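Sharing a chain and its predicted structure for anyone who wants a worked example. Both blocks are below, sequence first, tokens second.
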Amino acid sequence: MKTFWLLYKSEAKLSIREMSSIIFGIFVPLGIVCLMGVMDSSNDSLNTAFVSVSTVGICSAGVMGLPLALSSYRERKILKRYQVTPISPIQLLLAHLLFCFTISIVSMLLLLGVLVVFFQFSYVGNWLYFIPAYLLVMISIHAIGLIVASLSPSEKATGAINSAIFFPMFFYQERQFLMKSCRRDCRK
């Protein structure tokens, strides 16, 4: 278990050094939710923004970060090198997967903190429904990322596939929020 946590810490350091997973997984959702909060700070729209932007953090970690890292490990033959060491490659993969889960959860908690502190947000839904649904979505999206990483032939192909999956999800998510805001504003 000590080896696993050492691998986890090294994966965290490598990902933080690269910064793309941190920027897209944490800072982009924070920027989006701040922009949405400035546009419409009613609690109803903030609830919609919180739920929709939480999934942006999951998608960026699970669909963009995870497959790129795993396919680069495969392309650089890092996983084959781990086969001849006492550390199994599955421990490295699980450590990176756990770090991606951590980014998703930290993103959601920071979103909640920013909304509560700066926009006086109170969640209208039931937390007992939200948390299991959030975890299910997180596991599902990361599973999609693992499938993409295992099926793509190269790191460049993984990047193209990730973009084809992530950006339509991202724009559809924001479109839904804007459509709800526009309908509410038109009724007023």
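Comments welcome. The radius of gyration is 18 Å.
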